[in-house]
Amino acid sequence: MTQTLTIARPDDWHLHLRDGAMLRAVLPETARHFARAIIMPNLVPPVVTGAQAAAYRDRILAALPAGMAFEPLMTLYLTEDTDPEDVAAAAQSGLVKAVKLYPAGATTNSASGVRDFNRVRPVLEKMAEIGLPLCVHGEVTDNDIDIFDREAVFIDRVLDPIRRTTPGLRVVMEHITTRDGVDYVKANDTDLGATITTHHLVINRNHILVGGIKPHYYCLPVAKREEHRLALRAAATSGDARFFLGTDSAPHTDANKETACGCAGCFTATNTLSILAQVFEEENALDSLEGFTSRHGPAFYGLPVNEGTITLTRGDAVNYPAKIITGEGEVTVFDPGFALHWSVSA
Ligand code: NCD
Ligand code: ZN
């Protein structure tokens, strides 16, 4: 029996598109299935000002193949020198939909991130005033904090204090990886949401380390113990509107992944929706898929749900390419480790 599921066209609330040849290669992988995405600003140099975001948006639209529709939702990279008035102007013009907070040194291309949170207080206050969300990479970077504890410690030491001292600030905890993250969101009713990636619903830390090191499963925040993966699956499939999809699809060339000091990031744009359909089916929650991929995110950001739809059809195994070819080299597509049975059509 074929089973089909038609849902409002999804959005990706956390995506890395890069620039130049990489942008041209990865953009169609997202635009094929997604209408919009929150575009991460961690280019080198980062997208810091409204003018830089406008120029980056133009480069993204210029890279979109003819006949494809896609709306990039731009973000600004928060630095200690960010000007609150520039942020407000970029938001009020409709160009910028969020500001991204990277603790300095937390992840790929985050060297310009924030060290002293007091220095960004005027920006956060302006954002609270105008209702512009702060997207947070929630990991401390202190050397004495174990990498597997960095999210939980961030919540206590940084996130909760920021939220208490900036009432009304709307925050997205991005790519949560722990039960602690899930619990923190659930304990706070207003102004707080969280994105969950596809890969963190599929892998735990054993997938990275058991039987040989698997560089293509290494991302930040790093996947945690199984109990945390199960908490994420429960949150994503629960129908709770505070949780929505942000794939964090983060392409790096194989040369940069398969090396002595490999980059963090899983590239999931290509097969994300087939994987998610399977995860939600396994959890007996297919009726919650549309909320997670297509409705909760727009509700948080105050944007309309997309008018278009996609249809997922369950049938024979669906094959995706193992790698995509880019002008910078090959990029490996995330391997969920199981056969996929849901195909996607527009
Ligand atoms: C991201 C990247 O490659 O830009 N990497 C990752 O592992 N997720 C940065 C990020 O979102 O942390
Ligand atoms: Zn990311």
From TrEMBL:
Binding site for substrate: 16-18, 42, 137, 220, 252, 264
Entry note: cofactor: Binds 2 Zn(2+) ions per subunit.
Amidohydrolase-related domain: residues covered: 12-311
Molecular function as annotated in GO: dihydroorotase activity; zinc ion binding
Stored InterPro entries: Amidohydro-rel (IPR006680), DHOdimr (IPR004721), Dihydroorotase_CS (IPR002195), Metal_Hydrolase (IPR032466)
UniProt-listed PROSITE patterns: DIHYDROOROTASE_1, DIHYDROOROTASE_2
Catalytic activity: (S)-dihydroorotate + H2O = N-carbamoyl-L-aspartate + H(+)
CDD domains with a match to the protein in the record: DHOase
Gene Ontology CC terms: cytosol
Pathway assignment: Pyrimidine metabolism; UMP biosynthesis via de novo pathway; (S)-dihydroorotate from bicarbonate: step 3/3
Transmembrane segments: none
Post-translational modification N6-carboxylysine, affected residues: 100
Protein name in the entry: Dihydroorotase
Organism in which the protein naturally occurs: Lutimaribacter saemankumensis
Gene (name only): pyrC
